[in-house]
Specification:
The chain has 18 helices and eleven strands. By secondary structure, it is an alpha+beta fold. Strand 10 and strand 11 form a beta hairpin. Helix 10 runs antiparallel to helix 11 (372-411), helix 13 packs across helix 16 (498-527) and helix 16 packs antiparallel against helix 17 (532-554). The relative contact order is 0.08.
Length: 569
């Protein structure tokens, strides 16, 4: 009996972070539901016990059902019959197991059929599911689309759709089109309002994850004659009403159990969410931020699987009369993989806690006015969530790709064969730095938090933490790295060129990321000494990366842009 939660002590460490007490008390409104629902917690300890028990169930299903199915799902994949998706046999079994266990709608309120979990334990479940099968996490994890309905839809729509998601129905977000990938302002799927006030949708959507889901969130052009984001609105489409068919499923490199569909809308009935014209600039931005946090969790889960596969193989594989883990070249790869994994997870859960704080205050504000102190705190965490989400998605997905690459390297020639799981992990990992916004788009979102000082201010806060004597040297290294980062930012900003700033943006964002992840690992080490090895390895790795970027920026002048940026003749 495998359990992907119990066998990973780092998850419990992050679940028990000191911030969780305030998050839980706010989320539970001081446990007001205790007398209304027999499964609602009585106090903080009861709530934490509930999260722990549910995550144990997630871990058990992942270890005993989802992971054993992963290889067959990858080989079989889904297919289309009469305009409908038929899942791989293993995928159908996975979904049924999750439904029976009540693992859908975890973060939704109890009054709508959910478990009222904070985002953090829900993201932890996504981390665990991704370790078992990243492709399946795309189906299971899209239940998070219900968060958008909860935040922006009418009460009638909430009552109509969210209980269905909590009962096990699937969701998708239908955003991209053949001519509108990252540039969602170019979306042209047409929304037409009929004389009776109802809406119908016509057009094509492409690259839609789980595109034959039960309930869709659809971005469509509702304003005749517009060509930018101000003409777009958000709609709910219910598959029960018909009007949408799957034209085909994409033949992908990885995550093969997750059907990526091209959809054809023909007079498909739909319901407007919120107000017209706010589809992209408000609703989709919120939806994408949630999805990006989910991809960060997926990246960490894949990294976990890759590290475990590499470690097990290195212990078992014998060359020249000994296990290859005894060779320094192999041990070095494994130590860096583990450090990147632990740093990724630290960043993921720091981000999820910030999201929890600002979202719970947003929810409370719908019930009563916030106090001045609450407004100040809500603004603080909203800014941190906005800054850390692209950082988490960008850094964890890049490390995920690096860890699966190194996993294959440790396997040598065997890793190139489909006989080993690392080949599938490598293919599954590749999409994480592409979908829900490429790493380059995460840099675009993050760079303003470099230039406005959000990252530096947070780093300075973390610099104030007291550390054990054995960790003082590491902290001093992080302080030095911070000065290098601050100098690099000042240097780039001093040029007063947006083109030059954008050219250097990736390096500046990565510098901030390495320092922040180092401090987060330092914080974890104060609570659990088992992180000290990863802390030391990661900070040494980050120190070299920060120095490299600082050196590049210091030796680079704006006039050298012409060597890197081609000019059209």
């Amino acid at each position: 009996m495998a359990n992907f939660y119990i066998d990973n002590p780092s998850l419990k460490l992050h679940l028990s972070h000191p911030m969780m007490k305030k998050i839980v008390e706010l989320k539970e409104r001081n446990f007001a539901d205790a007398d209304k629902y027999d499964y609602a917690p009585q106090d903080f300890d009861d709530a934490m016990d509930s999260y722990d028990r549910v995550l144990e169930i997630v871990g058990e299903i992942c270890g005993d059902v989802i992971a054993p199915n992963a290889e067959d799902v990858d080989h079989q994949g889904p297919h289309v019959e009469n305009g409908r998706v038929v899942y791989a046999d293993g995928t159908a079994r996975n979904l049924e197991a999750c439904r029976k266990a009540g693992l859908m709608g975890m973060s939704m309120p109890r009054r709508l059929g959910g478990l009222n979990f904070p985002i953090t334990p829900y993201i932890m479940a996504a981390d665990i599911v991704s370790r078992a099968d990243a492709g399946f996490e795309n189906l299971w994890g899209l239940q998070d689309c219900a968060e958008t309905i909860y935040e922006f839809a009418s009460e009638e729509q909430k009552q109509k759709y969210i209980p269905r998601v909590c009962a096990g129905e699937t969701m998708s977000m239908d955003l991209t089109e053949p001519d509108a990938g990252s540039d969602l302002q170019s979306v042209m799927l047409k929304a037409t309002q009929k004389e009776d006030g109802s809406w119908v949708l016509n057009g094509v959507k492409r690259f839609i994850t789980n595109g034959d889901s039960d309930i869709h969130l659809v971005l469509a052009r509702s304003e005749e004659g517009t060509k930018d984001g101000r003409g777009l609105s958000m709609f709910i489409y219910d598959k029960r009403n018909g009007g949408v068919n799957v034209r085909r499923i994409e033949n992908k490199m990885g995550i093969k159990g997750s059907p990526t569909c091209e959809l054809v809308y023909k007079d498909a009935p739909a319901e407007l969410v919120g107000s017209t014209r706010l589809g992209l600039i408000k609703y989709v931005m919120a939806l994408m931020n949630g999805a990006r946090l989910g991809i960060a969790a997926q990246s960490v889960g894949i990294s976990e699987a890759a590290y475990r596969e590499a470690l097990a193989y290195a212990k078992d594989r014998k060359q020249f009369g000994q296990a290859i883990i005894n060779f320094p070249a192999v041990a070095e790869i494994l130590s860096v993989m583990k450090a990147k994994l632990d740093a990724s997870r630290a960043l993921l859960y720091a981000c999820s806690r910030f999201v929890d704080m600002y979202k719970v205050y947003d929810d409370i504000a719908k019930e009563r006015p916030l106090t001045l102190d609450e407004k100040k705190e809500a603004k603080y965490y909203s800014r941190l969530a906005d800054a850390f989400t692209p950082l988490a998605k960008g850094m964890t997905s890049e490390f995920c790709n690096q860890n699966t690459y190194d996993c294959i390297q440790i396997h040598g020639g065997s890793g190139f064969m489909k006989d080993y799981a690392c080949e599938r992990l490598y293919r599954d990992a590749r999409i994480t730095s592409i979908y829900e916004g490429t790493t380059q788009l995460q840099v675009v979102a993050a760079i303003r938090h470099v230039t406005t000082g959000t990252y530096l201010n947070k780093i300075k806060e973390m610099e104030e933490q007291q550390v054990l004597p054995e960790d003082e040297a590491v902290k001093n290294t992080l302080v030095f790295m911070t000065q290098q980062y601050a100098n690099a930012v000042q240097s780039v900003e001093g040029v007063k060129s947006s083109e030059y700033r954008d050219f250097m943006a990736r390096r500046l964002v990565e510098m901030a990321g390495h320092i922040i992840m180092g401090y987060l690992l330092l914080e974890d080490t104060q609570r659990d000494a088992s992180f000290r090895r990863s802390l030391n390895v990661y900070v040494k790795y980050g120190q070299a990366e920060v120095a490299k970027h600082a050196d590049f920026i210091g030796n680079f002048g704006p006039d050298a842009l012409s060597f890197y940026i081609p000019v059209e003749e």
